[in-house]
Amino acid sequence: MSETPNKTAFLVREVFPVSQEHIIFNSDKRIEYSCDAYESVIKRAANTGQCFFIVHSHFNGYVGFSELDDEQESKLLTCVWNRISNGYHGSLVFNDASTFEGRVFEPISKEFQEIHRLKVVGNQYRIISSINQPEPRAINLEKLDRNIRAFGEDMQYRMAELHIAVIGCGGTGSALIEMLGRMGIGTLTIVDHDRFDVSNITRMHGTKVGDENRLKTEIISEMIDSFDLATIVVEISERLDNATTGEKLKDCDMIFSCLDDTNFTRLILNQLSLFYYIPLIDMGIAFDSRNEVLHDVLGRIDILTPDRACLLCRDVIDMDACASEMMSPEEYNRQLKIGYAKELKDDNVQSVTYNTMIASQAINEMLYMLLGMRDIHRNSHKVYKYYSDRITNDGVNDLVKKTDCICGLSEKLGRGDSDTFLDMYWPNKNHV
Ligand SMILES: [Zn+2]
Ligand SMILES: [Zn+2]
Questions:
Q1: How far is the CA of 321 from the centre of ligand 2 (A)?
Q2: Residue 411: CA atoms inside 13 Å, Cβ hemisphere, count?
Q3: What residue spans define the domains of the chain?
Q4: CA 97 to CA 262: how far, in whole Å?
Q5: Which of 219, 145, 234, 224 is nearest to 188 (CA)?
Q6: CA angle, 179 as apex, 282 and 356 as ends, to 5°?
Q7: Which residues contact 399 (CB under 8 A, 6 or more apart)?
Q8: What is the pLDDT of residue 346?
Q9: How far is the CA of 409 from the centre of ligand 2 (A)?
Q10: How far apart are CA 408 and CA 386, in angstroms?
Q11: What is the pLDDT of residues 120-151, one digit of tens each?
Q12: What is the 117 CA–ligand 1 centroid distance (Å)?
């Protein structure tokens, strides 16, 4: 489960079909099965601290709960709640993938609470609205006309419902946020603790001379407001190296990470994506220069969904550098001297053309996911070699999850809230 002040989300971790042995009666109009069908599932939910949901469909195509459902589910869910009282339990009914009705049982009042949206995260990112979905957010059809002509009105309404986080408001992040804002994304959470410096003028979108010393998030937020497309901007001007800041990202539908060489923050985003089923699109730019001669510019995009090998399996995160970043500055210097800490690089080379290019490509990947246009299983890792006009994946797309990695552990995938956020050790100080 994922609980925030704004919403409660349930993360599906295990599905148990009713087995043949429990079916008492089955025709094309009705199915009846014994209560034993639930027994082992309720026991498992109780032992593993999970919620319990019943899912079914109706033979006549009717989407919505019947009176019989109301009566039987109230009884069953009361029993479940008596056995697992530290969670919520509920039910879903749907006949195809276009809509559904869902609810959570409130055991004290014996009333049901509506579930509004289902999200399917995998090769595609699908959002399915309930038949009782409240009115969608209003959009400015006139301003967004060219977007609508390209992607359709449905898609535009979906974009208005989306909540996207962008980590880093530098060269790549600012380009990405500007484009997302112009596309009419509903809510943008932007994260950067840094302030604008005049040397950022060469690549940071939305900035001007005179912005020196202002928070980058504040400048970018003003830019988005100036489009007047009703985008809500949530500014987080803190380092993403503590549980409190990390938890603020739980509300997001998707995260773009536009970080420099910061392994610890990437590790947090990797865990967050796996624990909460939030797709993560991670990107980076590297200049390949040898002896002051530029050989190529490399742009990397990694798309992480819960069914794919994670950034640790892909060696995108350097755990030795991560350990150095987690040390206090004194500890880091001490360990570095005796050769136990990995030296942290500071080769922050950037260029507006490449930053903007990789940002565009990352957003296109998001569009492909939303539109279901591409098999991301074959495109989840890409390296663009710009000078040589080549795209490679170095075999990473075929990687399987390492069995001892967090992404391969079923008890971690979709785990959601836990006693210690992301089951991680949170250091007090680091270099991130
Ligand atoms: Zn029913
Ligand atoms: Zn992994």
A1: 17
A2: 7
A3: 2-115, 145-423
A4: 39
A5: 234
A6: 60
A7: 309, 313, 314
A8: 65
A9: 9
A10: 33
A11: 998 889 999 999 887 888 888 888 889 889 88
A12: 19
Q: What residue has token string 């773009």?
A: 256
Q: What is the CA radius of gyration of the chain?
A: 24
State in Å: Cα 68 to ligand 1 middle: 7
Residue 278 has pLDDT above 90, yes or no: yes
Per CATH, the number for 145-423 is: 3.40.50.720
- Entry pTM: 0.92
Q: How far is the CA of 345 from the centre of ligand 1 (A)?
A: 59
Q: Taking a C-beta distance cutoff of 8 angstroms, is the pair 126, 97 a contact? A: yes
Mean pLDDT, the chain, as a whole number? 89
Measured distance CA(289)–CA(296) in Å, rounded: 7
Rounded Cα gap, residues 328 and 371, in angstroms: 45
Q: How far apart are CA 126 and CA 103, in angstroms?
A: 19
**C-beta of residue 279 within 8 angstroms of C-beta of residue 305:** yes
3-state secondary structure of 215: strand
DSSP 314: T
